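Support reply, case 0932

Customer input (verbatim):
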Amino acid sequence: MKIHSRRAVLTGATASLVLAACDNGVSSRGASTIDARVESTLSYLYTTYPDTIALRDKSTGILVMPLVTEAGLGVGGSYGRGALLVDGLPIDYYSATQASVGLQIGAQQYAHVLFFMTDDALYDFRNSPGWVAGADVQYAVNDRGGNLSTTTTTALSPVIGVVFGQAGLIAGASLRGTKYNRIIP
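Our regenerated output:
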């Protein structure tokens, strides 16, 4: 008779949650599904937060992750798929993955967009074997009026991240430590 520790049971349950969360509705239905979700996400973003239109107009590229699913129970992870747009057209498709350990329980879904504000930042992103969001990403955040605000520091950053549309039980979403890899949908 095999006796399982509480840690082993929790780890197994968490792994099951994370794997179930990875099927975030984009699955493997191809580029057309991702493109439709990207278009819908950008429409929502620009309508809800019109200040992001200025970011779009100044950026050299935009990575749109329409749906990222995050789940955790002590150990957690997130997964999503999206497209990189240059001049408004999708040129590559990417997955976003993140793993975390710590005091966490729950699940949430959200969208995020990375605005590449310089050619160098876009070049570095496209030519890395797995780009990881780190300290170089600045965030535009919601103020109390529901508008997105950027500071002078943020406006001068090579990459600006916007996280929005959060729904779920985990408070807050951060892109730090998220790894982006090019995929073929």
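We compared this against your earlier run and they match. Two observations from our side: The CA atoms of residues 13 and 73 lie 8 Å apart. The longest helix spans residues 31-48. Please reopen the case if you see a mismatch on your end.
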